[in-house]
Amino acid sequence: LESCEDVASHLQRGIRELPSTKALDRLLVEGKGGTLRVQSDKPVVVILGSGWAAHSIMKVIDTDSFEVCVVSPRNHFLFTPMLPSTAVGTIEFRSLLEPVRVANPFVDYFEASCDKIDLEGKVVYCTSKNCYEDGFRPEFQIPYDILVVAVGEQPATFGIPGVEEHCYFMKEIPDSVGLRQRIQQQFELAALPGTKETDMRRALHFVVVGGGPTGVEFAGTLSDFLREDLKKKYPELMPYVRVSLLNATPSILVQFDEKMRQHALDNFKRLDVDVRNDTPVVEVTKDIIRLGSGEELPYGVCVWSAGNAPRPLVKQLAAQIPEQAQYQPGGRPSKLAVDSYLRVIGVDDVVALGDASLYVPERLPATAQVAGQQGAYVAHLINRGFSLGAGGMEQPPPSKRVKDLTLTDRMHEMLAATMAPADDATAKDIVYYNRAFEFFNYGVLAYLGDDKALTQIELPGTSIRLTGALGNLIYKSVYITKQVSFRNRVLILFDWLKAQVFGRDLSNY
Ligand code: FAD
After folding, report:
1. What is the CA(51)–ligand 1 centre distance, in A?
2. Cα 86 to ligand 1 centroid, rounded to whole Å
């Protein structure tokens, strides 16, 4: 009560920043002199991010036992694998999203970015994404008991001049919104009376940089849009349209085997998508893409999907922890090295997952699959009362519930098998106790356009490889079942149906 009154008097006097004192440890301040909420004595778990890893934790974490605060500048989860389809209107933006407040109404969500982490004081410093009309942007701090860093990565430009200014990325919904508008605008520009042929060719040259699944899928979906919708509305412009896929390495889709890559190349040849391997881009100006060979490509729209780079927060955090230095490539902080329990090496009570983390025991791909599984794993660790302690390779996280630290997995299983059904919860705790994270690779998928896809599914002891229309059927079935809610499943099915029956939307708003 004493501290509440203190805070209230600060606010009455218009002081926007509150001193972080011990008495305020469980108080959060929202907004401009806004509501004060006294937190309970439950341990506070702060989750940074609302992507695949964070969403998966939110779905599993026990909010009865923990006070869970989510901080992310994005107030929703995004089903990234289908983002390229939104840029051409096959799928509507909202069909791929789930707001954090819907994903788990029992977490506290703050639309803000974390800018700094005080590892000793166990406090995160955040800045609101939004500001008031007078320009005031609230800043606040949250003390944590356990911190989950799941901030992902950002598109990598590799310092190539002009990429940031002139290219479209394919990472978030606003990227896709901008790209969708730009594609429409290019057609309307080229359709104006008196447009010179060279200008038409330039405006309608769509270039995708990056031969990974995202670049390939976008090239495929764009070619569908051109063939199935734009061709009907702008038939006179079709001779000037061109799609190029530029890839700096010798092959596209390195995640797939040789035969499937060849299948992708053959499909693109049929669809008139010009795939150019070993073609690095060295500069992008407002109307020219300059290649390593010196060649200059006039272009209308360039989509940059050439890889990811660490976020500043992750670099800053990795640089603060001396034990991280040996894991950073070339000594440059990039990802947070984590041990087999996903604890950040060299620091207490911080876990990192998904694209922001480097799993030291084994090389894992930076994919949604990994991030989602890591999120669920960490939520189970937290729910079972593990104190996540300091990250280091050897020690398993000590549990508050299970005292015996020396049992092997086999012993846990035997013990669990002999336990009475009434003790089931404890038995489960014992069975799972001490288990390091294990990634189950279910395979990879990529849409190629013209209702064809590559599907490489890994099952225990076997792997299934499908291409063409059958591959596409599996691709669609997997993505429908993988949606995070029934609502999204229904919306996507309707979107597919709408696009088939009425075509994709061509309005430019
Ligand atoms: P993200 O999902 O990127 O989430 C990061 C979160 O952190 C976001 O909510 C962000 O707003 C938030 N954040 C950022 N900075 C801060 C900060 N300072 N403070 C607080 N929060 C912050 N993977 C597959 O397995 N299969 C696919 O088919 C596939 N296709 C893809 C297609 C596209 C277009 C893209 C972009 C990615 C695709 N991926 C795919 C990769 C997959 O999306 C990523 O590996 C996955 O999103 C990583 O999850 P994450 O939780 O680590 O990060």
Report:
1. 5
2. 16
Task: Please state the atom number of ligand 1 nearest to the C-alpha of residue 55.
Answer: 51
Using DSSP bridges, classify how beta strands 76-78 and 36-38 pair: parallel, antiparallel or unpaired: unpaired
What is d(CA 210, CA 249) in angstroms, rounded to the nearest whole number?
9
On the question of pLDDT at 452 being above 60, the answer is yes
Could you please state the CATH topology (level 3) that the domain comprising 163-306 is classified under. FAD/NAD(P)-binding domain (3.50.50)
pLDDT of residue 17: 43
How does residue 413 score in pLDDT terms, banded at 50, 70 and 90?
low
- Quickly tell me which residue has 């429409």 as its tokens: 184
Return the HEC string of 43-111. Answer: CEEEEECCCHHHHHHHHHCCCCCCEEEEEECCCEEECHHHHHHHCCCCCCHHHHEEEHHHHCCCCEEEE
What are the boundaries of each domain within the chain? 39-155+308-401, 163-306
DSSP letters, 109-141, are: EEEEEEEEEETTTTEEEEEES---TT----EEE
pLDDT tens digits, 56-89: 999 999 999 999 999 999 999 999 999 999 999 9
Task: Name the token pair of 303.
Answer: 């989509």
C-alpha 119/C-alpha 486 separation (Å) is 39
Least Cα distance to 55 among 362, 444, 378 occurs for 378
Q: Which is more confidently placed, 391 or 110? A: 110
pLDDT of residue 33: 38
Query: CATH topology of 39-155+308-401 equal to that of 163-306?
Result: yes
How far is Cα 297 from Cα 246, in angstroms, rounded to an integer? 11
**Two tokens at 18?**
């509150």
Beta strands in 321-398 (DSSP E): 336-338, 350-352, 357-359
- Of 305, 351, 355, 359, best ligand 1 pocket probe by most atoms within 8 Å of the beta carbon: 355
pTM (2 d.p.) = 0.87
342 Cβ inside 6 Å of ligand 1: no
Decide whether any atom of ligand 1 lies within 6 Å of the 72 Cβ: yes
CATH class entry, domain 39-155+308-401: alpha beta
How many angstroms separate the alpha carbon of residue 495 from the centre of ligand 1?
Answer: 23
Query: Is any ligand 1 atom within 6 A of the Cβ of residue 149?
Result: no
Higher-confidence residue: 15 or 231?
A: 231
Q: Which atom of ligand 1 is least distant from the CA of 82?
A: 32
Tell me, in angstroms, the distance from the centre of ligand 1 to residue 368's CA.
Answer: 7
Two tokens at 272?
């008139």
Burial of 61 (0-12, 13-18, 19+ CB in 10 A): buried
Which two three-digit tokens encode residue 461?
Answer: 């002891």
